[in-house]
Design brief:
2 domains; HIT family, subunit A; about 325 residues; alpha+beta; 14 strands; 4-stranded antiparallel sheet; 10-stranded antiparallel sheet
């Protein structure tokens, strides 16, 4: 059973994922990605994954867990957290621990093994976003879960172990510290100015335009003012909304257009780099927040965290965001 352990100094929770590496020597081993017809995410290999929890595109008359789908969501075969059991929070001397209860699911984005999310039509990327929303709406009914993190690791340098296009979600019994810090910072801005800091940033970036990369009717894409790494890019709704799952289908379609444009620009400009993207949203079952604003953070894996970053918490970024944004703006998509 995985465990969640709390650092007593800074309050950070760590997952001890016993199901993923049972022996110390296993840590240095990377599982090989299955090739060709052995890929468990390809059509015809549905029996190689746990039973699906969500599917789109397959005709209603077709059998479950078979071909004919557009997007398929399955439990992760190597979960960081386990769906079964109780949290059983308890002290261990001065420390705090709980059972590693949560959900860990894989969103298979396309039946095409060779596809890239950036190369899919906007309608198909929208199908992936609809799957994200559907899984949040389902999992938030489990009162053990406090937060759902949606993310994508593309490429080995970004942590991906399978080539087939996919993203993941992990439902957690706590709110991640980084998200909690964002929420607290946004709450402080709202208390002082009675405005959402993210709404203010959107207005500033649309007015300044030096860091702006792309915008459509509902979303703006820009390089943040203080990026942690080269070409870090944010996708933010223009209108205020704290919860990703509250977005209607029409606006998620426009989000798909913004995400596609962002990923295509990064691929063309940087030679198809590995990357991560993460969706930050309001915690589950919290009331809509006037101060917090959901958004997507896209992080190309172009640098490595080293001693200074680990020791200080500072990030060293050799590319000014204004130059990165200008470079991305010039890319034809």
């Amino acid at each position: 059973m995985p465990e969640l352990r709390r650092d007593p100094i800074v309050g950070r929770w760590v997952i001890i994922a016993t199901e993923r590496a049972r022996r110390p020597q296993d840590v240095s081993r990377v599982r090989e990605a299955p090739r060709g017809g052995l890929c468990p995410f390809c059509p015809g290999q549905e029996d190689k994954t746990p039973p699906e929890v969500y599917v789109s595109g397959r005709p209603p008359s077709a059998a479950a867990n078979g071909p004919g789908w557009k997007v398929r969501v399955v439990p992760n075969r190597y979960p960081a957290l386990m769906i079964e059991g109780d949290l059983d929070r308890e002290p261990v001397g001065i420390y705090d621990r709980m059972n590693g209860v949560g959900a860990h699911e894989v969103v298979i984005e396309s039946p095409d093994h060779a596809a890239e999310l950036a190369g899919l039509p906007e309608t198909e990327i929208a199908e992936v976003l609809f799957a994200f929303k559907a899984r949040i709406l389902d999992l938030r009914n489990d009162l053990r879960f406090r937060y759902i993190l949606l993310f994508k690791n593309k490429g080995a340098n970004a942590g991906a172990t399978l080539e087939h296009p996919h993203s993941q979600l992990i439902a957690l019994p706590v709110t991640p510290r980084q998200v909690a810090e964002e929420i607290e910072g946004a709450r402080g801005h709202f208390a002082h100015r009675e405005r959402c800091i993210f709404c203010d940033i959107v207005l500033q970036e649309r007015k300044d335009r030096s860091r702006l990369v792309f915008e459509n009717e509902e979303f703006v894409v820009f390089a943040p003012f203080a990026p942690r790494s080269p070409f870090e890019t944010w996708i933010v709704p223009k209108r205020h909304e704290s919860n990703f799952e509250a977005e209607p289908k029409e606006r998620l379609g426009l989000c798909a257009a913004a995400l596609r444009s962002t990923l295509k620009r990064l691929a063309v400009a940087l030679g198809d780099p590995a990357y991560n993207f993460i969706i930050h949203s309001n915690p589950l079952r919290d009331p809509p927040s006037p101060s917090y604003h959901w958004h997507i953070e896209v992080m190309p894996a172009l640098t490595h965290v080293a001693g200074f970053e680990w020791g200080s918490g500072f990030h060293i970024n050799p590319v000014p965001p204004e130059e990165a944004a200008e470079f991305l703006r010039l890319v034809a998509t």
